[in-house]
Prior knowledge:
Structural class: alpha+beta
Distance between the termini: 23 Å
Order of helices and strands: HHHHHHEEEEEEEEHEEHHHH
CATH topology of the largest domain: Butyryl-CoA Dehydrogenase, subunit A, domain 3
Bound molecules: coenzyme a persulfide
Helix content: 40-55%
Strand content: 15-25%
Number of helices: 11
Radius of gyration: 21 Å
Oligomer: single chain
Number of strands: 10
CATH class of the largest domain: Mainly Alpha
Strand order of the largest sheet: 1-4-5-8
Largest sheet: 4 strands, mixed
Shape: globular
Amino acid sequence: MQYELTEEQRMLQDMVRRLAKERVEPGATRRDAEGEFDWAMVDLMRENGLYGIDFPEAYGGSGAGMLALAIAVEELSKVDAACGLLVADHELGSLPIMLAGNEEQKQRFLPKLATGEHLAAFALTEPAAGSDVARLRCKAIKDGDSYILNGTKNFITNGGVADIITVYAITDPEGKAHKNAAVFVVEKDTPGFSVGKKEDKLGIRWSDTVELIFEDCRVDAENLLGQENEGFHVMMKTLDFSRPGVAAQALGIAAGALEYATGYAKERESFGKPIIRHQGIGFKLAEMAMRTEAARHLLYKTCALYQELSKDMSRLTPELIRMSSMSKCFCGDVAMWVTIEAVQVLGGYGYVKEFPVERMMRDAKITQIYEGTNEIMRLVISNTL
Ligand code: COS
């Protein structure tokens, strides 16, 4: 396993860092205030090939791997976490196809996803359950050569803007839990599929978070990913592969807040010296830096291990499942803690919207909640010990 970043990874990091500073950061405050999805940011990701970083070259991606993806998401999230999410969530929505799709399905869907011409979303959570996947209710009942989907999904990132959605549904309502569900690709113009309520959120405010409604929505059996009874396991493994993306977003938020607070503490003076020279503030920044760096190492190691799997979910081990959950949980907790401290370093200025750290603090919170709450992450970690 390579420990240092490669030349290519460093070049990607420099490129995305520049792009983030020059093209993403300037509109971050406005996008947060308006809370409207911004297609210009999607175009920016497309033009710079960021959607296809971790897609195999055979399907039009750049095949650069999970660590490269994490680096890009981290750099974008340093200045705007909702922008990092554009890329991370697209990967999440596409992963069930990469992990469980057959060759025909990969050829049909992945090339347009790799360029970002099509956007993907992932639909698992429902109004009645998010953590307890085995209790989900959306149904897909077989009817000839197709399945009829009925149910509601909620809190679906990119749900209203995606071209394809990977959807988890129960195929055998009387069947045994964990063996009664399947994953389908639903294309956005399928009759019976519609987009419901849009959420007004605390953070990542301009990212698209919506309810999805399936009413007698007929999906061709050709869009079933894997076998009918494999859905639970496909979704669990998808999350193992995707959670490092949330960790990267969280790490970026922490790193962005640390950078801003450090710069501020060197400029701002009190009692005759820059506040970083007061140990009350200097030690706070030291602690923020230590935790952020520790989070980065845990995540990068996880990504390096995962990219050796080449998207083969049968090669997942309990240790790898644990690494993914540890990265997501640790990076999320670090992001929350670091951003709260950053607000404190800025004092009154940390509490107003003119400075970015209050947005970063609001954005951090979701990383402890989505793609498996940090309580569920601790459950997964303890189950694999
Ligand atoms: N990776 C791979 N396999 C997993 C797994 C994981 N992370 N977690 C569980 N499994 C497997 C188990 O090994 C078991 O396999 P077998 O049937 O071969 O024995 C099976 O799945 C059932 O496991 P378990 O009995 O632990 O399932 P539970 O119903 O108790 O649920 C949790 C397990 C809670 C861990 C699971 O439902 C989960 O991860 N929930 C969070 C879902 C989530 O992230 N929601 C957010 C939505 S996306 S924004």
